[in-house]
Structures are given as structure tokens and as C-alpha cells.
Amino acid sequence: MKKTCTHLLVAAVSAATIGGAKAATTVTYDNSFAGSFMNVHELTANGGGGKGGFVFGGGWGVSDLVAIQDVPSTSVTLSPNSVGDPNEFWYQNTSGAAPDPVNPGGPGQLGNKWMEANFFNEVGDGSLAGEELTFSVDVTAFSFTAAHTLQLFIADFEAGFANPIFTEVAVNGTGVATVTANLTNNPTNIVQYGFRVSGENVWVTDVAPFGSATIGAIPEPSAALLGFAGLAGLMLRRRR
Length: 240
Prior knowledge:
The protein is mainly beta. The protein has one helix spanning 223-239; strands at 24-27, 35-43, 51-59, 67-70, 75-78, 110-123, 132-142, 148-158, 162-171, 175-182, 190-202, 213-217.
């Protein structure tokens, strides 16, 4: 997992502090994203759907979230989580068709947990301390149903991943999506920015009707834009 800012996309108005204002940095998706964490909750109303009590959280395989990275195109496709274990912990025997009531998982069976799949980049070197961080991406395809939600998030943790401050924005369609957070001015803090897909786990053969989203990077500023930014900086210095 990368813990540097080597892949940051810096806005044309750079991270220099001007007139005492917070430094501003803009980042986007890239192929260095490797952070993966799953929070698992019970369903509400004894399996009636919705997010219930917390069960556990831990590291999860990126492809198991589900997050499938297309490295040549610098994009990722996010889908609802699907657990391959048919045990009743994970699936409900709603049709009575499962061969074993203790292992009800299979086509057509409903999930038995609420999954929060987090896919992110992590920066732990203090380089973003005290900054205004913007995470911006291009959502090129979106077909999630109301059964699952997609969010962009920025998380600001104290050392040891304590006392996190989350800033989240829901994504409901295609186009540019952005979330911005004012980070704590503490170089020991850990910052994560990325995506969260939430909803019930779905048996692998039943995933397609629940939809997905494909997300890519915001293109880096063009040479013309960078030239304009440099000219603006020169004019500002001359006015001083």
C-alpha cells in the first residue's frame, strides 16, 4: 500500500499558501489505489434489509470488494459485494430451494449481511497535514439500483487509525464527482481518500441486475492551462 503523494494531481492553483489561506491539493483516481477494507453489519429487522448492528471490520481483497481495476485505461469498476461462502451467516434461505438449510447460499438467495466496501489510497507521511484536500473523479458509467449506494470519501485518522473524521459525498450518476475536506494540521495523521459501496451482499450469479459504476481519473491540467496558471502567478508577482 502506497503511503506517499507521488501520484497526487495538483490543481493549477497549487498547494502554496497565499495570504494565510489553507494550502489546497486536488487528487484523482490512479492505478496506485490499493487500500481495501470491509465493514460488515447485520441487517435490520432480522434480515429485513438495511444497515443494522456492527459485526466486524477488516482487510479485504480488492477484487472481493468488488473493485476491478483496468490498468491501461486508469479506471475501476465497482460492483456489489458477493461472498462465495454459502453459509447461513452470509445468506438467507428465502426460497427453500437450497440443498442444505445451514448453507443456503446460491442463485436467487438474498444476502444476510450489510457490507461497506472501502477502496482507497492512503497517505501516511504527513504531507497533507492541514491542507484542504479535494478528491475528484470522472464517473463514466453508473447503473447502481437503490439497493446499493456509492460514495466518495476522505478520512482523516489520528495515529493508529483512531478517531476518524469522515467527509462523504453520494454519487448518483455519471459525470465529475468531488468531495472536499479540511484536514487536521497534524503530521502524524493518516489520510485516506476513495470509494465506498454499501448494501447487502449478493450471490455472484445475481449481481448484474444490481448495477455497477465505472470511475476514471480527471485528466491532468493541459499545458495551456498550466501556462495560464504560470502567467497568472507572474502577473501577481508583478503587481506586488
